[in-house]
Specification:
The protein is of the alpha/beta class. The protein contains 15 helices and 11 strands. The longest helix has 20 residues. Bound molecules: magnesium ion.
């Protein structure tokens, strides 16, 4: 970023875990980052509090029924946008340089495209964007000459490792995504049937929302990230791997054909990747605490248990097949997680549900956005019927 010029950020999904961390980063770098728009799904009180603290003049609330309640909490000068149109309006806000999308689910897809279309850089935290529509999004971004900045810690790590690399892609042999392995890393396969919601919500290293925490326990989170990496870095699915690293200190690695490996390390704090995405290509002192190597007892690595945690195999299959299958993979997992949370299915059923929906799906190559959303819908129906009668 140019010195002396603030980067103006629209934040979609401001009341969630990534949103809150982003506002913290912006506060620590108030001379470099300016928040110009905030959007939330339905948490009116928190959104209003954030709007007053940042002084934004544009906010969006996805749940239209909450508009009145929000209006009462904000000064009349603040413009309130609502619904899906509201998210789009914020995405093309003329004063914004970058749009950070951190909305859970498919609602972030259209706003991401709108931002690119409007010539904004896109900071991606929502996995659905690249998993469902990676081909469309990356093609549109290169057509418009805008950047896609990864906010997820793994992709941000790879992005940083590739920063010094000026050679062609064929010099990269593998991208290695690290995974904490979640709370059941060492749980025997047969005991996975006894996993309760409470157990699945206890992540050993990261503090995140419930959906992503369960995805970390099943390894679906890593599967989604493998597919995202395929699009973000233009590397074939066969060259993207995952490795278990319980300490969550090495956030991911790039192996080059000469055998050298570059890794990015930091404490497990989302402030690091968020800050780098928003200040890229500059590095700024934002008050984040560096690693203290004298306090690190060990860094461990082990291969994932592919048989017991089938999510990675399913992800590879979805990523290799491409087309609408990654959208099916994503949607079926979302439905399965909801059903696990409401006690309708057991933990290992989450994998079986996704397998079922993928087998059930009609595969479409190079789909349009409409076909992707259609595949998403059908996958939800298919996954829903599995969950009503899990085998
Ligand atoms: Mg991650």
């Amino acid at each position: 970023m140019t010195r002396g010029k603030k980067r103006r950020v629209v934040l979609l999904g401001s009341t969630g875990s990534i949103g809150v961390s982003t506002l913290k980063v912006a506060k620590n770098l108030r001379n470099e980052i300016e928040i110009v728009g905030l959007a939330a799904c339905s948490n009116v009180a928190k959104l209003a509090e954030q709007a007053l603290a940042t002084g934004v003049q544009n906010v969006a609330i996805y749940d239209k029924s909450k508009e009145k309640e929000l209006r009462a909490l904000l000064p009349p000068s603040v413009k309130i946008h609502t619904g899906a149109e509201g998210l789009n309006a914020l995405s093309e806000l003329s004063e914004a340089d970058v749009v950070l999308v951190a909305i859970v689910g498919t609602a972030g897809l259209q706003p991401a495209l709108t931002a690119i279309e409007a010539g904004k850089d896109l900071a991606v935290a929502s996995k659905e964007i690249l998993v469902m529509a990676g081909e469309i999004i990356t093609a549109k971004a290169s057509e418009k000459g805008v950047r896609i900045l990864p906010v997820d810690s793994e992709h941000n790590a790879i992005f940083q490792c590739l920063e010094g690399h000026r050679g062609p892609d064929r010099e990269i042999s593998r991208l290695i995504l690290t995974a904490s392995g979640g709370p059941f890393r060492e749980t025997p396969a047969e005991d996975l049937w006894n996993v309760t919601l409470e157990m699945a919500l206890k992540h050993p290293t990261w503090d995140m929302g419930p959906k992503i925490t369960i995805d970390s326990a099943t390894l679906f989170n890593k599967g989604l990230e493998m597919i995202e990496a395929r699009w973000l870095f233009g590397i074939g699915m066969d060259r993207i791997e995952a490795i278990i690293h319980p300490q969550s200190i090495v956030h991911s690695m790039v192996e080059f054909i000469d055998g050298s490996v570059l890794a990015q390390l930091s404490r497990a704090d989302m402030g690091f990747p968020i800050q780098y995405a928003l200040t890229y290509p500059a590095r700024l002192g934002g008050g984040l605490k560096p690693l203290d190597f004298t306090e690190l007892s060990k860094l461990e690595f082990s291969p994932p248990r592919l048989e017991d945690f089938p999510a990675l195999g399913l992800a590879r299959e979805a990523g290799l097949t491409g087309g609408t299958l990654p959208a099916v993979f994503n949607a079926a997992n979302e439905v399965a997680v909801e059903n696990f949370r409401s006690g309708n299915i057991k933990f290992p059923h989450i994998w079986e549900c996704v397998r079922h929906a993928m087998n059930d799906a009609v595969k479409t190559e190079t789909p349009t956005l409409e076909q992707i959303l259609e595949a998403d819908k059908s996958a939800r129906v298919s996954a829903g019927s599995f969950c009503r009668n899990p085998a």
